[in-house]
Write the structure tokens for this entry.
Amino acid sequence: MNTESSTIITLDLKQQVTLLQQMVEALRNDIYNGNLDANRTVFSLNQLGANLNRLVRQVSQLENDHNNLVGLTETGKVVNSTLELNDVLRLVMDTIIRLTGAERGFLMLRESNIPEAPLTIRIARNWEQESINPSEFAISQTVINRVVQDSQPVLTTNAQEDPRFGDQESIIAYNLRSILCVPLLDRDEVKGVIYTDNRFRAGIFTEATRNLLQAFANQAAVAIQNARLFDSVRRTLAEVTELKNLMDNVFSSIASGVITSDIEDKIVLCNRATEEILDQKRDQLVGHNLYDIFTDFDVELSQKVMEVRNSDQQMIGLEMKSRIPKRGLVSLSLNMSPLKDAGHLTQGVAIVLDDLTEKRRLEAQTRLFERMVSPAVINQIDPNQLQLGGKRTQITTLFADVRGFTSFSEQLDPEMLVSVLNRYLSAAADVVLAEDGTIDKFLGDAIMAWFNAPIPQEDHSLRAVRAALGICRSIFAIHRELPPAFHLNFGVGIHYGEAVLGLVGTEKRLDYTAIGDSVNTAKRIQENSAGGQILVSEEVYRQVADHVEVRLVEPILAKGKALPVVVYDVLRLR
């Protein structure tokens, strides 16, 4: 019942009361004056009774309208008391059924904002406040379509006899009688419908019921829209929170340190790796100036940050050293990029920080290792498949020993002695490596090397002889630079034969070396060579005879050999 109708009923009620008061007063006067007439009295009483009955009906209707308005107000409060969409829909349907006296109620909504989107049943309830099984969704689609199309409510007190719907299959098949369907409007756009019916009784719904339901539907539409917006915001918030948590996890798990600073060069964010690299907690970094953290190169860093901002370009591979209290001197690699906002305006700088300390230490160790072991050997070693033992192969072994070093060492202090020795050994090693030989080891003032392994070389014996001649030439060059007192010479011995090459030692300490009688023979030949002399075995000579000039010398009686060893003194290459 709307306000205008209530006003009309109220005015009519006042008139009825006034008329009754006049009739009672007239009847009282007739009794007082003795002017009673039987017929006239009966007529007056009948008239009074009729007016009283009409007054009772009007009072009852007004009371009913008042109760509906109160119920509508209270229901609006309840419906708008929650933003949980499912709770709102359930409250809406239960309230509708209670207000209208319907047997069933269905609330249908568009699942998207597209006007042509189909309506789907979101909730269905009965008069016992129970959810209806989907198998009972027997409703008139014709009525619903008309409400959606016209944006106006539809009321039929007996659908079976209503000329608008009586011939519809759904009306007949489902035995539908009283139907009331109103639109859910939001800014004059149909967002859904409320459909109520009674399959057993006709005339349940009235115009007043329709008006009441439409008024409630307007409130419900707002409540549903608010609940939908809240649900959408909550889902978006959940997605954003999930994405933020994911980004936080990714940010924290990045192996490289990440620092972001604002336009004033204050640190805004940093990840866990940054804390570990700089050995400082987040609260010691965030909010502090970049240059207070990197004090060892603050001036240079300030210039680079300014350059990144001004050029709007990345800077990659900036390497610096910084002293960290608990870690000492560390090597750091910095990659810097301008940090932009949604409007592509630079708001600071993002720095990716990598700790190169361990890498640089390993590189230094590798360089030292390469000076001790032939690069060819290093390339042949697989750290994951290191096993003790070796394999047989044919190699040419070279030993070169500094002659007279023992007596020479008695004349110098240790530091000078090591300096001079290293100069001679370095010259010999450079020549061997130039011929792709493998330096096995340094033995005090001697060097041991071999050829034809780990990489096969067809001319390995010739390479060894060329290396020996190169050692002699390099010695002459050293003599031109050093005083006569420091002039030393190598005695060289070379032999060809079978040896076992592999790893010797323990899992904690390994040597990649050559072992066998041929190696021992090369060592014995070298022991019998004079300073500046190159002695080769007969096996080697047969390999290089066409390329060298030699002089046959007396066979040597090598330690551990039953027979003398035939040797040749190499003079020069042909």
